[in-house]
Amino acid sequence: MDTQLNYAPCGFFTISSTGVIQEVNQTLLNMLGFERQELLNRHLETTMSLTNKLFFHTYFYPYIQLYGHVNEMYFSFKTRDQLDVPVLLNGIRHERDGEIVIDCVVVEMRKRIEHENDILQTKTKLEELYRATHEANKKLELLHEEYESKHSQLLILNHQLEKLASTDPLTGLKNRRFFQESLLANIAIFQQSEQPFSLLIIDIDRFKSINDTYGHPVGDLVLTELAQLLVSASREDDIVARFGGEEFVIIIPNANQENAILAAERYRSKTETAHWGEYHVTVSIGAATITQEDTDQSLLQKADQALYNSKKSGRNRVTHYSNLEEG
Fold it and tell me: Whole-prediction pTM value?
């Protein structure tokens, strides 16, 4: 790495297609407090919190695989002392010396903090100027316009960041992070009101064979079209999310065991009878309904066990966890 890049006014690193750090400049090392030998040949995720690891898997990797680049991704690294460093990350995927690599540039998000401070300072000035004489009114109006402009920009930025953090880039559904938060929220509501809800885990049958036979672009198309089908077959209050790979999850509020099975059968039937071109797509579904003893993990485990039974019993079918208990 040449001296100019090594000491550039922004962090730079190169990772392999699997996320192993191959190059890192001194600027990023100084930013995170590491020595070069501590990061080289280690996985990039060693510099991340658990939350950011999930975000990296659900947004960065799929997006850069699909489009070849990522622009202005709001992200956070962990320093050697486990402190958060918020950054904007740009990345590009390309081939170098016969190997697929990802070059990334990061800039600390200091301007965002300064932006918020500017808003607070401007507001303080406004309060002072409103109490001032008539001669200062013109200046007050100008400062007020400046405050409104900066505040609007911050609201737009926050909305964009929130959307990126909760959306699966391939299917447009809510991502796993959003689903986990929604599951906890629904459990809290159930504990207060005892109004039941149910959880479905939906898995595409023999999805690997679709990728192997028709290629990954067709596999991505199947995922996208199935996502649209699930949304179209859902109620407005239902939460449909991509769980990972070929798995989807649906939270169905106000649904007992009977309602859950009916809904699951509707999704299964619509998938089986949909037009998929040259290939045939079916799904297996596991369902579970909340009980007083359940946590988010136990409810997920129940739905997953029910899904496993649907797969084991021949696929293209629905199993509710309670039926396993009865059996």
Answer: 0.53
